[in-house]
Design a protein that fits this description.
two-stranded antiparallel ribbon; mainly beta; 78 residues; 7 strands
């Protein structure tokens, strides 16, 4: 899950969104509530993701299970 990483960053009280950026310049904006439920994938079959990595993002409800948001390189608190 993404939430433990965000919590560890100790976001300021006014943070409401999380911007996920990819190495291709794409962005995904999540509300802080949505971000609490997303699942991050760093490895497949025990090995770091090489193709379209380094991180895949899945919604907690599984709605993008077949098409995760790929290539995430950074998270920015907004």
């Amino acid at each position: 899950k993404l939430w433990p990483f965000l919590k560890n960053a100790k976001p300021l009280d006014d943070v409401q969104q999380v911007k996920c950026e990819t190495k291709n310049g794409e962005e995904l904006i999540l509300s802080l509530e949505e971000a609490k439920d997303v699942i991050l994938c760093f490895a497949i079959n025990g090995k770091p993701i090489q193709e379209n990595g380094p991180i895949y993002l899945y919604y907690g409800d599984g709605k993008n299970k077949e098409h995760p948001f790929k290539g995430i390189t950074s998270f920015i608190l907004l």
